[in-house]
Design goal:
The chain is α/β, with parallel strands linked by helices. It contains 11 helices and 14 strands. Helix 3 links the parallel strand 7 and strand 8 (125-127). Helix 3 packs parallel to helix 11 (317-333), helix 6 packs across helix 7 and helix 10 (281-291) runs parallel beside helix 11 (317-333). The chain binds phosphoenolpyruvate and manganese (II) ion.
């Protein structure tokens, strides 16, 4: 069930409706829209007694939500959510969100060199894992808190917002302290306790699609986060497992318009994991922007041949600069913009 408030409903009226919903034993999720506020109701097992709510001042109407997800759907909120990270960096707005950086933070010199390169090319967000979910327990697992400290330095010295992964509930406390956006990886997309913990965080969450997840499963995973009160969620398509063997994964660009039809959450594309091959990253980046993605997440390494993880799909900073040059006119066709590069660290 969702309650749509009238056009000029006051903050007090919205508050009173939320209190009423909570007094009935449910949870209220007020979501402001461009013209009016909608209030999602969760926690009800059966139908909600709409009459008691409709009688309150400022209430337009109560409408049942047809989809299994209540809070991520466009039924609740028509316009796309913009996740505002401050300092003019927004995800889901007119300017595309470009996140770039190494798969893993391997050390200070490596990380700073890459940050300098991607900032110069126009990235406003920096990625890098301090905790790595690896297929093999013998592979590099990440620098943990030392890696997070290096990322904090990158934010300070290059003015980049930090996107970094929490692989479990234990790492979440540190990741949310140091990062600007908490990444939840493909392997964890249905780790429901981690999703709930992320839902109680005050930092935005970047949720990657699981390697075999359907669109509904992706949206339901996001619903877990919103249902706990965190409405700043960004989705990310990163390729799914298919029979194709010319790529590591099959980048499912058709999911972008499908998500956008159903959900108000912004969606990015990660062509690095999506293809697993360096030479395919630029072409698929161009395609992702053309299909209408809200931005990209790209793995960049200054020495891909020496990378401790995902070297095969990492591009060099010069290649990233070229990628940025290529997507600018494509973005313009769609009425989107790409931030200009900064020649030197801020
Ligand atoms: C990553 O972004 O480096 C990563 C591990 O991604 P995914 O969870 O999509 O495999
Ligand atoms: Mn990676």
């Amino acid at each position: 069930m969702l309650v749509t408030m009238k056009l000029h409903a006051t903050a007090e009226e919205i508050e009173a409706v939320c209190r009423k919903i909570e007094s009935m034993g449910y949870r209220a999720h007020p979501i402001p829209g461009s013209t009016r506020t909608a209030i999602g109701i969760t926690g009800n097992q059966g139908p909600v007694e709409a009459a008691a709510i409709e009688a309150l001042p400022g209430v337009g109407e109560c409408v049942p939500v047809s989809k299994p997800y209540k809070l991520v759907g466009r039924e609740l909120k028509e316009e796309t959510t913009i996740v505002d990270l401050g300092d003019g960096v927004r995800i889901g707005g007119k300017e595309l969100a470009i996140i770039a950086g190494p798969c893993a933070v391997e050390g200070r010199e490596q990380t700073r060199a890459i940050a300098e390169g991607v900032a110069a090319a126009g990235a406003r967000l920096f990625r890098g894992g301090a905790y790595k979910p690896r297929t093999s327990p013998y592979s590099f697992q990440g620098l943990e808190e030392d890696g997070l400290r290096i990322l904090a330095e990158v934010r300070r010295d290059f003015g980049l917002k930090i996107v970094t992964e929490a692989i479990d509930v234990e790492s979440m406390d540190l990741v949310e302290r140091y990062g600007d956006v908490i990444q939840i990886g493909a392997r964890n997309m249905q780790n429901f306790s981690l999703l709930k913990r992320a839902g109680r965080s005050r930092k935005p969450v970047l949720l990657k699609r699981g390697i075999s997840a359907t669109l509904d499963e992706l949206l339901m995973a996001a619903e877990y986060i919103l249902s706990e009160g965190n409405y700043s969620v960004i989705l990310c398509e990163r390729g799914i497992r298919t029979f194709a063997d010319h790529t590591r994964n099959t980048l499912d660009l058709s999911v972008i318009p499908a998500v956008q039809r159903l959900s108000h959450l912004p969606i990015l594309v990660d062509p690095s994991h999506g293809t697993g091959r360096r030479e395919k990253v630029r072409p698929l980046s161009r395609a992702a922007i053309a299909v209408g993605a809200d931005g990209l997440m790209i793995e960049v390494h200054n020495h891909p041949e020496r990378a401790l993880s995902d070297g095969n799909q990492s591009i060099e900073p010069s290649d990233f600069e070229e990628l940025m040059r290529e997507i600018r006119p494509i973005a313009a066709v769609l009425g989107r913009t790409v931030a200009p590069g900064s020649a030197r660290p801020v």
